[in-house]
């Protein structure tokens, strides 16, 4: 058990210290790194090209450099990423894949091209109609275009075998994480909200194969343990992300256990596994087509609420917490629908508004404690 | 004896209940979290009740400064405490509008009195007691006389901004353009009421409606909110001590 706890703490630390983790990962793997913007950047392509894909999920970085390009009503992830880029933190990256899921991200592509000419930027567009044959074909073309740019950076072609191995590696990672989140939901004492988040987040900064191996060891240890019994109320988090980590401490302070999540930064990264049929690029495009219930990928059925209800049932949860990143329009559009659905199903729902660089948590503390008191 | 303290952002309140749930003493000191106001409020309440510290069996703290009050046996949010306090004196209450120094909340209650749901203002101070303080400064009218000033005003001056800082600029502009202080005060009060009403619409306002918190001492505000939400508001004799009363009631029940 001590060995398992040691690996858990190691990954927790890796998730909490991105800069150090990336430096170590690059040194250990001997690979150069490519930055990947949220949310579904084609990491498999990057991996197959022999680069280390690095998740770019903002951070607690404050500053004024980004104000030159972004209005005050842009989300804190994009402001932090821009601030980090303009202050030179990303100069160590060999390239950056810029995705576009919202208006802010679309503008960032153009801003970064002008502001950061020394960075190798690889823009990427996702089709709205991702399930239609034309949408899937468009997705495959985009992946192929990005692949070509990575090949240019690599100085050689990516073979189909390399790409297939990368897709398989990510399938393995995703399957492992699905298993992990199920097991973690049985251990509220081990996986406090902050630790669970950091352990999952560590995947963004490590070589996926190395990370998955460590997760398999954790799973092996957890399988031998009896489920823990606590008086914590079980909640499901939904949204883009649940940061800053101090907010997660408030969950623990109020005896709220994250039984499962529907966060873009966490479970949505591994909730869908690519089908086995087809070429590697076809499998990747199909995976995006299958990813439902995410506000950042057009979902005509608006199935997120149904997914939340299923998660609540599956994980025996007491309530849902909607983590609204301030100024994140796509999530703001989803909230009224989710609210209506949860009210109809009589599922307690709390809406909290977050910014990565929050310093005053008094109001959030009152909201979370008040919600916990209702659940009691 | 059971003590409830409510440490808000601009005032500290203390209520002492006996074992029958009867109020023995109340105290309000106009300095809040981060000051010694709460100690003074407790001393005043103990003095009024003729009690000493050692006679307090249990203490519950609520309000913005609750987490730093070490003498409390338990900290409970003002959401639960206002619900408990209001139900102690108004059994039929189903919706509470609590306007404090920097927070505004609408709290919905179940038939049992338990909190069903709540909504709070975001970080912005619009629709809170702080807005009233800003109004008072801009209009050169003491807070205690603001209600009378508003009653002299008439509708027609619109303060449209939802931000307190911008609303302050708007009020100055309106005064500069020749509008009377009373009419500007009336418009500003309508603006706060609209803000509160908007919050209420998000959660649903069900009668009977009660207003609590220090801002509810302002009768003009209660009148404006009543008009904005379209529901009669039950007046409380001392809305400012409701949070502390609820905390004291919790202290009694938890003993």
Descriptive overview:
- The complex is a heterodimer of chains A (376) and B (255).
- Chain A is α/β, with parallel strands linked by helices and 376 residues long.
- Helices cover 51% and strands 12% of the residues of chain A.
- Chain A has a domain at 30-161: Rossmann fold.
- In chain A, helix 5 links the parallel strand 3 and strand 4 (121-125).
- In chain A, helix 12 (304-314) crosses helix 13 (329-344).
- Chain A is globular, with a radius of gyration of 20 Å.
- The two termini of chain A are 33 Å apart.
- The mean pLDDT of chain A is 95.
- By secondary structure, chain B is of the alpha/beta class.
- Chain B has two domains: 1-90 and 238-255, ATPase, nucleotide binding domain (Nucleotidyltransferase, domain 5), CATH 3.30.420; 94-235, ATPase, nucleotide binding domain (Nucleotidyltransferase, domain 5, 2-Layer Sandwich), CATH 3.30.420.40.
- Chain B contains eight helices and ten strands.
- Chain B has helices at 37-49, 78-89, 129-139, 146-152, 164-176, 181-203, 219-229, 242-254, and strands at residues 2-7, 12-17, 23-29, 58-62, 74-75, 95-99, 104-109, 115-120, 209-212, 233-234.
- In chain B, the strands form two sheets. A five-stranded mixed sheet of chain B has the order 3-2-1-4-5. In chain B, strands 8-7-6-9-10 form a five-stranded mixed sheet.
- Chain B is globular and about 60 Å long.
- The model of chain B has no long low-confidence stretch (mean pLDDT 90).
- Chains A and B meet through helix 14 of A and helix 2 and strand 8 of B.
């Amino acid at each position: 058990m001590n060995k398992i706890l040691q690996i858990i703490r190691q990954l927790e630390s890796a998730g909490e210290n991105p800069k150090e983790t990336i430096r170590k990962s690059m040194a250990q793997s001997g690979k150069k790194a490519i930055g990947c913007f949220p949310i579904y950047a084609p990491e498999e392509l990057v991996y197959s090209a022999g680069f280390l894909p690095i998740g770019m999920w903002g951070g607690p970085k404050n500053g004024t450099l980004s104000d030159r390009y972004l209005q005050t009503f842009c989300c804190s992830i994009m402001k932090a990423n821009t601030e980090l880029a303009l202050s030179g933190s990303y100069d160590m990256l060999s390239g950056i894949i810029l995705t576009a899921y919202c208006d802010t991200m679309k503008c960032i592509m153009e801003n970064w091209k002008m502001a950061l000419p020394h960075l190798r930027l690889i823009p990427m567009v996702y089709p709205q109609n991702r399930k239609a044959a034309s949408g899937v074909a468009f997705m495959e073309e985009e992946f192929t275009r990005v692949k070509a740019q990575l090949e240019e950076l690599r100085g050689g072609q990516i073979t189909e075998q390399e790409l297939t191995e990368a897709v398989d590696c990510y399938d393995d990672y995703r399957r492992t994480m699905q298993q992990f989140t199920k097991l973690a939901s049985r251990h509220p004492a081990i996986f406090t909200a902050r630790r669970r988040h950091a352990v999952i987040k560590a995947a963004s900064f490590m070589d996926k194969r190395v990370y998955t191996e460590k997760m398999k060891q954790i799973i092996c240890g957890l399988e031998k343990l009896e489920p823990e019994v606590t008086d914590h109320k079980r909640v499901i988090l939904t949204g883009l992300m649940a940061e800053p980590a101090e907010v997660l401490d408030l969950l623990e302070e109020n005896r709220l256990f994250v039984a499962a999540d529907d966060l873009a930064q966490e479970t949505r990264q591994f909730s869908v596994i690519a089908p086995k049929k087809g070429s590697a690029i076809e499998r990747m495009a199909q995976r995006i087509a299958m990813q439902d219930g995410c506000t950042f990928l057009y979902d005509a059925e608006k199935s997120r609420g149904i997914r939340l209800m299923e998660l609540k049932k599956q994980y025996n949860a007491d309530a849902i917490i909607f983590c609204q990143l301030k100024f994140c329009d796509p999530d703001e559009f989803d909230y009224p629908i989710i609210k209506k659905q949860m009210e109809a199903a009589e599922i307690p729902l709390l809406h909290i508004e977050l910014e990565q660089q929050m310093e005053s948590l008094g109001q959030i503390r009152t909201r979370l404690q008040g919600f916990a008191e209702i659940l009691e | 004896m059971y003590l409830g303290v409510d440490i808000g952002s601009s005032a500290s309140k203390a209520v002492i209940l006996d074992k029958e749930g009867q109020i023995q003493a109340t105290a309000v000191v106009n300095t809040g979290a981060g000051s010694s106001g709460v100690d003074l409020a407790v001393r005043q309440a103990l003095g009024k009740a003729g009690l000493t510290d050692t006679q307090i069996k249990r203490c519950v703290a609520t309000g913005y400064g609750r987490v730093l009050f070490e003498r409390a046996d338990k900290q409970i949010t003002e959401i639960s405490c206002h619900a408990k306090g209001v139900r102690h004196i108004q059994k039929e209450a189903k919706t509470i509008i609590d306007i404090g120094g920097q927070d505004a909340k609408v709290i919905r209650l179940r038939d049992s009195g338990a909190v069903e749901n709540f909504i709070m203002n975001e970080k912005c101070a619009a629709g809170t007691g702080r807005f009233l303080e800003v109004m008072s400064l801009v209009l050169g009218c003491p807070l205690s006389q603001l209600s009378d000033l508003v009653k002299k005003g008439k509708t027609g001056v619109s303060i449209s901004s939802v931000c307190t800082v911008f609303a302050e600029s708007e009020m100055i502009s309106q005064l500069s353009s020749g509008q009377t202080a009373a009419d500007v005060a009336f418009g500003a009060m309508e603006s706060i009421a609209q803000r509160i009403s908007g919050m209420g619409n998000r959660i649903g306002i069900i009668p009977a409606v009660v207003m609590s918190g220090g801002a509810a001492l302002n009768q003009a505000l209660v009148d404006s909110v009543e008009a904005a939400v379209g529901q009669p508001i039950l007046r409380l004799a001392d809305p400012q001590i409701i949070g502390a009363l609820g905390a004291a009631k919790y202290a009694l029940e938890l003993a």
